[in-house]
């Protein structure tokens, strides 16, 4: 199955105001064999993360060192749990999140739904600290505005492909 659509939102705070920035350009695949998810890879181009304010977008891309690290990547390593109830799917997976040149093991929890056979949507959120990925939180206005280290990444991803059963 391939990603049909996605919305990845990063929200955080500054000492001036809260902010959100969004990407809708994730690509990737989900492979299901014998009713089990066996492969999940997701790539998000760093340049696609924007909020429309040019300075903030520039600072965001600099924080990732985008020329050297053009993608954020998640690669699943294990399915920790999966439960289904009718068309609802709850899943907990482990994997590696790589961004800004650093990789860390993370656990993602997602609530999913079979929209129709072959179309599945999953959403969840993951709190992160930029410093855990050796990223320096950006500043602006000669250092007057400082971005907080803690961010929350919310994801909503729809996969489309052959109809499967999850168990």
Could you state the order of secondary-structure elements as H and E? EEEEHEEEEEE
Head-to-tail CA distance between termini: 17 Å
What is the molecular shape?
elongated
How much of the residues is beta strand, in percent? over 45%
* Biggest sheet record: 10 strands, antiparallel
Parts with pLDDT < 50 across at least 5 consecutive residues: none
Radius of gyration using CA atoms only: 17 Å
Kindly state the number of beta strands. Answer: 10
Number of helices: 1
Average the pLDDT over all residues and give the rounded result.
Answer: 93
Q: Percentage of helical residues? A: under 10%
Which class of secondary structure composition applies to the elements? mainly beta
Question: Could you please describe the fold and organization of this structure?
Answer:
With 167 residues, the chain is mostly beta strands. It has one helix spanning 54-63; strands at 2-14, 18-23, 27-33, 36-45, 71-85, 88-99, 102-116, 119-129, 139-140, 145-160. The protein is built from one helix and ten strands, in the order ββββαββββββ. Strands 1, 2, 3, 4, 5, 6, 7, 8, 9 and 10 form a ten-stranded antiparallel β-sheet that branches. A hairpin with a 2-residue loop joins β7 (102-116) and β8 (119-129). The radius of gyration is 17 Å and the shape is elongated.
């Amino acid at each position: 199955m391939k990603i049909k659509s996605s919305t990845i939102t990063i929200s955080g705070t500054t000492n001036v105001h809260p902010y959100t920035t969004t990407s809708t350009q994730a690509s990737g695949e989900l492979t299901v064999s014998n009713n089990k998810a066996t492969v999940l890879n997701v790539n998000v181009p760093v340049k696609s993360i924007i909020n429309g304010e040019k300075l903030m977008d520039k600072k965001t891309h600099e924080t990732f060192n985008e020329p050297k690290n053009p993608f954020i990547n998640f690669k699943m390593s294990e399915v920790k749990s999966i439960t289904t109830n009718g068309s609802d799917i709850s899943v907990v997976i482990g994997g590696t999140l790589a961004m800004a040149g650093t990789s860390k093991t993370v656990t993602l929890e997602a609530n999913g739904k079979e929209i129709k056979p072959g179309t599945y949507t999953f959403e969840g959120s993951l709190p992160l600290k930029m410093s855990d990925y050796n990223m320096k939180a950006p500043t602006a206005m000669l250092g007057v505005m400082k971005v907080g280290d803690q961010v929350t990444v919310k994801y909503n991803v729809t996969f489309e492909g052959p109809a499967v059963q999850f168990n």
